Amino acid sequence: MGLPGEYSCDPNNFKVTDKMIQNYNDFGFFLDEVAKLKTAVEHERFTKHSYGLSDEDKRQAGLIMWKHPGNDVTGMLARCEKVVGTCEKVLGGEVYHYHTKLFTKDAKTGGKLIWHQDYGYWYKNGCLFPDLMTAFIPIDRCYKENGCLEILEGSHKCGRIQHNLQTSQTGADLERLEHLKAVCPHRVVEMDAGDTLFFHCNLLHTSGFNTSDTKRWALIPCYNLKTNNPVYEHHHPQYTPLQKVPDTAIMECQNFDDLSGKMFNVPEEDRTVNAK
């Protein structure tokens, strides 16, 4: 049985429907299919920028993060009409690229990410309103055993809850989290490579250990409304106009090596995690 906000589409004629927006408002997410990226990211040109996020068991998930989309294949995805236009339709205005993350969990050893809202982090960066959203795009099949995403359906309606630094990660207040677990359905979001989960910045989510024999990588571009420009300068960009490209640009792009302009993050910039 699929998730309540799950859709398939014609990749050459994608349109956001009123039903998709209704699902986003009701559940905090909807699911769409999108293109391949493995060749672009499974390379030292990206992995050399990785740093680790530890959990309480000292396992690590890898994090690679960059400020601007750039002109490579990942940049075409982050700038394409199908992704950016979807976010603009849902959020109701012009958006810009807030950042993209590449999360990596190695087979057998990949660590977990604790329950949190993205706005639990982004509120601390000076974003005054929760007018941000995320597109979660698996590079590999994501399933329970390799640490797929798990969500509390409808939890975005509770608004931002308090977040505190726990081990090396910023996590949701544990008492409030337990109360929300009692009233919000817990969903395990198993996805195929190339699917996309669009979700609200207040949706509570987590992901478990990778106990499987397969790695679990996911590309995660994030977007902010132009009108929600952060009031503080920080490690993610303030409003920067986004030059959108047609969906065909992803398959047409042959640039895998030139990552100029992306501006990769370093852990020392981010005060919301203790990374290394």
- What spatial order of strands do you see in the largest sheet? 1-11-6-13-4-3-2
CA radius of gyration:
17 Å
State the CATH class: Mainly Beta
Q: Beta-strand percentage?
A: 25-35%
Counting DSSP E segments of at least 2 residues, the number of strands comes to 13
- Give the averaged pLDDT, no decimals: 90
CATH superfamily: q2cbj1_9rhob like domain
Q: Strand-and-helix sequence, N→C? A: HEHHEEHHEEHEEEEHEEEEH
> What structural class do the secondary elements suggest?
alpha+beta
Poorly predicted sequence stretches spanning 5 or more consecutive residues? none
Estimated helix fraction = 10-25%
Note the main sheet. 7 strands, antiparallel
Number of domain units? 1
Number of H- or I-type helical stretches: 8
Going by CATH, the architecture would be: Sandwich
Cofactor: Fe cation
Pfam families: PhyH (PF05721)
InterPro entries: Phytyl_CoA_dOase-like
Give structural attributes.
276 residues, Jelly Rolls, seven-stranded antiparallel beta sheet, 13 strands, Phytyl_CoA_dOase-like
Protein described:
There is one protein chain. The strands form three sheets. The chain has a seven-stranded antiparallel beta sheet with strand order 1-11-6-13-4-3-2. The protein is globular, with a radius of gyration of 17 Å. It has 276 residues and is of the alpha+beta class. The termini are far apart. It contains eight helices and 13 strands. It has helices at residues 18-27, 38-41, 44-47, 73-79, 81-91, 118-122, 174-181, 248-252, and strands spanning 29-33, 51-54, 60-66, 95-105, 113-116, 132-138, 149-152, 163-166, 169-172, 186-189, 195-200, 205-207, 216-225. Strand 8 and strand 9 form a beta hairpin. The protein has one domain (18-269): q2cbj1_9rhob like domain (Jelly Rolls). 20% of the residues lie in helices and 26% in strands.
